[in-house]
UniProtKB/TrEMBL annotation:
Transmembrane segments: none annotated. Residues 6-174 form the Fe-S hydro-lyase tartrate dehydratase beta-type catalytic domain. GO terms for molecular function: hydro-lyase activity. Coiled coil: none annotated. Pfam families: Fumerase_C. This is Tartrate/fumarate subfamily Fe-S type hydro-lyase beta subunit. InterPro entries: Fe-S_hydro-lyase_TtdB-typ_cat (IPR004647), Fe-S_hydroAse_TtdB_cat_sf (IPR036660). It comes from the Bacteria. Keywords: Lyase. The lineage of its organism: Bacteria, Bacillati, Bacillota, Clostridia, Eubacteriales. Belongs to the class-I fumarase family.
């Protein structure tokens, strides 16, 4: 099934998404990679105010390339999600409802997705230049010293995604493997 969804990514929106669905996402998406996740996690543990409200938000695991002349952002492809898995269950508990990346997730992340209600979207690795065309604006909102790994607030229109793991724990990686195991 194909869905057009606008953020914030509320619980009622994720309830209808199933593993394998195609989504065109519009609205606000935040970027954060390894170093930013570590800082956010440490801020949560210290009881500090975060640079943005996590409730009903989507985090894209991406650090962009510099923008070429006339463009808002450079290549903006996903990074491997597993590098954020240590921190992700806490961020989901705090309100994150969507994550965008590539690759498999840990059992702890999937369990948190089911318990608190979140989805994992896949973006096509290797298509960063194409994906960047969906980004209408960007601004660094936290951790500027991290360079490309700073937290950015992106405005996206029709950002192409696939639901890899839905809020019920159905996982396209497992589904795909099971279809081919006896061949």
């Amino acid at each position: 099934m194909k869905h057009k969804i606008t953020t914030p990514l509320t619980k009622d929106k994720i309830e209808i998404l199933k593993a394998g669905d195609v989504v065109e996402l519009s609205g606000t998406v935040y970027t954060a990679r390894d170093a930013a996740h570590k800082r956010l996690f440490e801020m949560i543990l210290a009881g500090e105010k975060l640079p943005f409200d996590l409730s009903d938000q989507v985090i894209y695991y991406m650090g962009p390339c510099p923008a070429p002349p006339g463009r808002v952002i450079g290549s903006a492809g996903p990074t491997t999600s597993g590098r954020m898995d240590y921190y992700t269950p806490k961020l989901i508990e705090m309100g994150i409802t969507g994550m965008i990346g590539k690759g498999q997730r840990s059992r702890e992340v999937i369990d948190a997705m089911v318990k608190y209600g979140a989805v994992y979207f896949g973006a096509v690795g290797g298509a960063g230049a194409l994906i960047s065309k969906s980004v209408q604006s960007q601004e660094i909102i936290a951790f500027e010293d991290l360079g490309t790994e700073a937290v950015r607030k992106l405005s996206v229109v029709n950002f192409p995604l696939i639901v890899v793991i839905d809020r019920y724990g159905n996982n396209m990686y497992d589904i795909g493997r099971s279809r081919w195991k006896d061949i």
